[in-house]
Amino acid sequence: MRSPTNNTRVFGGQAWRQGRRRLTAALAALLLVPWAAAGCRGARKPPPDGAGHAGKPSDATPARELPPAKTLPELGSVPPPPGPPAGILRVHLDAEPPHLHPLVDDDASVRAVTAGLIYQTLLDCSDGTYRPGLAESWDVSDDGMRIAMRLRSGVRWHDRHPFGVLDVQATIEPLLQSGSEAAMARADLADVADVEIISERTVRLALRRPSDLALRALCDLPILPDHLIRGVRPESSPIAKQPVGTGPFRFVSWERGKRIRLQRTPETWGPAPGVEEIVFDLEPDAVHALNRTRRGDLDVLPHVLDVHYPDQVEPATLHGTTALYMLTPDRYSFLVVNHRHPPLADPRFRRAVALLWDRERFARELHKELVRPIGGPPFGGAPSVTAFDRRRAAAMLEDAGYRDSNADGVRDRDGRAIRLTMLVTAGSRPLAVESRAFVLEMRRAGILVDAVPTDPATILVRLRRGDFDLAPMIWQGHPDEDPAALYGPTGPFNFSGYRSSVLDAALDDLRRAPGPAARRPVLARIGELLAADQPVIFLYRYDVPALVSNRVHGLAAVGDRLDFRRVWLDP
Asked: What φ, ψ does residue 197 adopt, rounded to 5°?
């Protein structure tokens, strides 16, 4: 399941807010890479023969074992609570939500509070298959152009209004319009042309083309109450301050700067939750949040900052009352490459450049091994990255015809020296270190790169305009996602301008594949294609450490999105 946002977050600056899906309201789905401002850890390996290294990120420290970390299951493998609901679950929230409307700008803190708890979706994909949600059944026409969904009867909104077909129509129709601010949701529903009401309990989606991905989109889309959203601008809707859903928890109160309280819904159509209340505790001070979790004031700390890992989460510091978990979201970083600017359109040039970012070294020394170097997107199995190798990169550039024809130390093509610009988020020390090393390695390989510190808003403007050569980004996805938004010819977030007829054919195969299981081999094929073509320069996949009290049971996760629906507590 995905998470955006402010899905575009930049290297450094504020700590990374967990659970982001893709971008801000303006972009709704990408992030400038938020590399943590942390010191190095781990022993330094010698460079490969002939590789050499530029710069010195920090002094290496002796290698040591990282603290043991557990993993969380997905919801489908978690048994229901053993008894009646009891107790209050206290969850850390690192930032005040701007609102609580789940389809305004998809902020991570909004989703953390509302997704699956207050609001529900038509379908549930939490176990890798399609299962009934607010839709009890569905039927796809023989030609694949229509999806009829029969809605559950007897479901009510938390304000006691009955749930029905008008709610589905009022939620989806605005997202099909070109002016919709929810860019990612609109991209997910790109194959949906219209929403038709067939009967009192049946709604039908008319498609532009056969697409199983339209069903997949319904697993992520929260359904909102027609009587509170129709004809009202999203930011003006009452649900922005007092959300009303159909889920197992209802909104109770929001004390600005302090906490948001949810309470178990007395009458819910689904399985009963295991706790009476969930309190999202607003604590912007990461040190205070960590200390409160270790002494038992908070039950769940969804994201331990990199600066606190691993020293502050060693077993001795947790006193046997709290456990460390490692979450593995489909969050990965890359350099966006502008294919409109030669020589970046040449895959041979891009493959050579990919050898000059020393991922393995920086994963150890700057990221405390909370990132994993990748050579392709994680949805395709994240092919292993080719090791840093300056000599091989130089040879590849030479073979591709990028040579220093006038012996000035700079490679050229058709008499023009190769000089690139890389946008770098201002104020981020880790990114500054990595980008400086990368610039030096490119220079040693005969390519000039100017690193330009730039504020995030300006970077996004320049990405939209195509006014860049290279820019580091992060994408927050899910294992069963449609890569077309990022790599397809009309993808709203294909800032690189990448085009590939082979990829287009594979994306069509993905769209027609009947269900998540059938899509997996197609996604693997797409991942291999992107790893070979390097439309962007793939860098890292991210892990997220989290702390959970030992009194908490039944917690599940999809990536780093925590699922509290079956949580129960020791007395």
From this structure: -90, 120
What's the Cα-to-Cα distance from 298 to each of 156, 262, 281, 313, 322, rounded to whole Å?
32, 16, 8, 15, 10
pLDDT digits (tens, 9 = 90+) for 69-128: 999 998 778 888 999 999 999 999 999 999 999 998 768 899 999 999 999 999 998 777
Q: What is residue 366's three-state secondary structure?
A: coil
Token digits of residue 516: 């998540």
State which H helix or E strand residue 448 sits in. Answer: strand 448-454
Query: Which of 218, 235, 252 corresponds to the end of one domain?
Result: 235
Span 301-311, pLDDT tens digits: 999 998 999 99
The answer to whether 513 and 505 have CB atoms below 8 angstroms apart is no
Residue 457 CA to residue 8 CA, distance in Å, equals 10
Q: Closest Cα partner for 487 from 337, 355, 330, 357?
A: 337
Task: Please report which confidence band the pLDDT of residue 189 belongs to, taking 50, 70 and 90 as the band edges.
Answer: very high
- Per-residue HEC secondary structure of 328-365 comes to CCEEEEEEEECCCCCCCCCHHHHHHHHCCCCHHHHHHH
Answer whether residue 542 shows pLDDT above 60: yes
3 state SS of 546: strand
What band does 65 get if pLDDT is binned at 50, 70 and 90? confident
Claim to verify: residue 301 and residue 345 sit in the same structural domain: no
Do 448 and 372 fall into the same domain? Answer: yes
Instruction: Answer whether 101's CB lies under 8 Å from 234's CB.
Output: yes
pTM of model > 0.90: no
pLDDT digits over 137-186, tens only?
A: 999 999 999 999 999 999 999 999 999 999 999 999 999 987 666 777 88
Q: At what angle do helices 347-354 and 390-399 cross, to 10 degrees?
A: 170
Q: How many whole angstroms separate alpha carbon 355 and alpha carbon 443? A: 13
Helices 501-512 + 516-533 axis angle, to 10: 170
Paired tokens of 93: 């929230």
The parent domain of residue 211 ranges over 123-235
The torsion angles phi and psi of 93, rounded to 5 degrees, stand at -125, 120
Cβ contacts of residue 33 below 8 Å, gap of 6+?
A: 10, 11, 333, 425, 431, 472, 473, 474, 539
Does 49 map to a domain? no
Beta bridge partners of 272: none
What Å distances lie between residue 17 and 94, 101, 290, CA to CA? 7, 18, 15
Are residues 459 and 532 both part of a single domain?
A: yes
Residue 297 CB: number of other CB atoms within 10 A? 15
Residues 6+ apart with CB under 8 A from 276: 85, 86, 87, 88, 263, 264
d(CA 284, CA 70): 26
Rounded Cα–Cα distance for residues 484 and 522 (Å) = 13
Query: How much is the pLDDT for 444?
Result: 96
